[in-house]
Write a structure and sequence with these properties.
The complex is a heterodimer of chains A (114) and B (116). By secondary structure, chain A is mainly β. Chain A has strands at residues 4-7, 10-13, 19-25, 31-38, 42-49, 56-57, 64-67, 73-78, 87-94, 103-105, 109-113. The radius of gyration of chain A is 13 Å and the shape is globular. Chain B has 116 residues and is mostly beta strands. Chain B contains no helices and twelve strands. The termini of chain B are far apart. The chains are: A mainly beta (114), B mainly beta (116). The A-B interface holds A 4, 31, 33, 40-43, 45, 48, 50, 56, 58, 90, 92, 94, 96-97, 100-108 and B 9, 32, 34, 36, 41-46, 49, 51, 90, 94, 100-104, 106-109.
């Protein structure tokens, strides 16, 4: 099993450009999450999904959109990137409702917006 | 509402000495508690969890944590620190009664530095 993978690993954007971050998991997990990590801020939840075709807003959803068209994939989109979106983005999944409650994280995407 | 606090931004310890990374939480019911570790330029890795049962929980890499309900704490411990334990540690809490969204709350993280 590859676990949770994220594409790309690094990206530099100019203000106003758009991009999509891809998260894929091969563990058949229902629940998936997108976080951003900034120094001193810990992890902040952007959006999450409790199953294929469903998405919901987290703590900091503004400026981001998501889609979960397939169970194994969770896409995070930035329609018009801003320097405030410079961050490291992590995807995670949980084996719920029947699993162990702990989250499985991807390796992260480091995004810089100039 | 659920919340978690990691009161120390950084913990320094000498190799071979015991280490403690502190975590306190707040939930309305019985908590689910987790510790994760993040090595540089990597994602978070699960270390251990408390769901129910014994208050002392053992996890990966020789780490353990003690659930203390009266003090609402879940401190991470290791009897003998290694330089390779140097990393960022996150505590997380989830209220199992909070509905079907299964959203944990993370602390801000504690940087553990183990000196040779």
């Amino acid at each position: 099993n590859a676990g949770v993978t994220q594409t790309p690993k690094f990206r530099v954007l100019k203000t106003g450009q758009s991009m999509t971050l891809l998260c894929a998991q091969d563990m058949n997990h229902e629940y998936m999450y997108w976080y951003r990590q900034d120094p001193g801020m810990g992890l902040r939840l952007i959006h999450y999904s409790v199953g294929e075709g469903t998405t919901a807003k987290g703590e900091v959803p503004d400026g981001y959109n998501v889609s979960r068209l397939k169970k194994q994939n969770f896409l995070l989109g930035l329609e018009s990137a801003a320097p405030s979106q410079t961050s490291v983005y992590f995807c995670a999944s949980i084996n719920l409702p029947n699993g162990g409650n702990e989250q499985f994280f991807g390796p992260g995407t480091r995004l810089t917006v100039l | 509402a659920q919340s978690v606090a990691q009161p120390e931004d950084q913990v320094n310890v000498a190799e071979g000495n015991p280490l403690t990374v502190k975590c306190t939480y707040s939930v309305s019911g019985n908590p689910y508690l987790f510790w994760y570790v993040q090595y540089p330029n990597r994602g978070l890795q699960f270390l251990l969890k408390y769901i129910t049962g014994d208050n002392l929980v053992k996890g990966s890499y020789g780490f353990e944590a003690e659930f203390n309900k009266s003090q609402t704490s879940f401190h991470l411990k290791k009897p003998s620190a290694l330089v390779s334990d140097s990393a960022l540690y996150f505590c997380a809490v989830r209220d199992p009664r909070a509905g079907g969204s299964y959203i944990p709350t993370f602390g801000r993280g504690t940087s553990l530095i183990v000196h040779p």
